[in-house]
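A quick aside before the break. I want you to see a complete sequence-to-structure record at least once, exactly as it would be stored in a machine-readable document. Don't worry about memorizing anything.
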Amino acid sequence: MRSTPRPRSVAGRAEAALGRRGILAGPSSDPIADAVQDAIGEGRLPAGTRLGEEELCRIFGVSRTLVRQALQRLNFAGLVTLRPNRGAFVAAPTLEETAAVYAARRLIEGEIIAEATRHCTANDIRRLRNHLKLQAEAESGGHRSALLRLLGEFHLVIATIGGNPILADIVAQLVPRTTLSLALFERRDLPSCALDEHRLLIDLMAKGDAKAAARAMRRHLSSDSRRLAVDTAEPTVDLAAALKIVGLGEP
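That is the input. The structure line, written in tokens, reads:
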């Protein structure tokens, strides 16, 4: 582990990946999009749920224009699918699609963490350990949407430490897709070891063991993918109850 920082120009370019569009990002200025996003992250809106514009207008007490803006934002983030003449639905990635994304992540992120381990600094390790504390706080507080966001963000942080902005950008495109799948299809009956596995990754990076870190990263991503189970049944959901909204009123 190096004690001297890498050039800011390299780290800065890679850091930009953290600011790209993402699934289950932090709060925005759109309360409708935020409420739908949280409901998806907490499992209250399953994959394939229809998000009727009229019903959302009634629930939030706003105009159709604001609802459509929120749905467009959610569509851009990959959380919602807009189907011509049918409306908006919670996105429903297939298990095969998700497996392919995880396979790509294992291939890419194993190499990324190996490279990051070879030149990470003490500050990088502190940053990762501080991020792990945020994950633990979200888990202990029962904030699943925030936890899923942080679990995915952890991998983006490692990608920035790797110092290759092209690879960091690829990870930034892949992580949201698997985060969405976890939000929609994660089996709650199986215990999650994500935080323990993240802690192990940090420890191996701190020791400078690049080969072991790469193996641990691939095992970690395989473990994630095994926690998914797609339910093909047509969901029937009370949107008002799922969104836990009485009405926000239009500004």
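Two observations worth writing down. Residues 3-22, 246-251 have pLDDT under 50 and may be disordered. The CA atoms of residues 116 and 184 lie 31 Å apart. We'll return to this after the break.
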